[in-house]
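Narrative summary of target 7.
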Amino acid sequence: MAKQAVVVKYRVRPGQMEAFLPILQAHVKWTKATDPGCLQFDILIPHREADTVRLHEVYADETIFDAHNASEGLAAYKASSEPFLLERSISWCSVAE
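Modeled conformation, tokenized:
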């Protein structure tokens, strides 16, 4: 199976970045600790896009990726982060090697 990647773009409500980032950082830490197939999980802050955060995640294979998507931890993160977000867009990708 091919590695799976996720590219996420968040538009954060103006003035809410300081409150949102610790929630996101805790989720990244939790994912790295509990998902052994999570190979990479980066938080990216674009230089010229105010109130925007991008994520780059890579998982060992589709089974691990699916387990992450079905996890209670991801559901809890989504619920706690929702009040801080204007928009969330997600691209699921296979990693070409």
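The mean pLDDT is 94.
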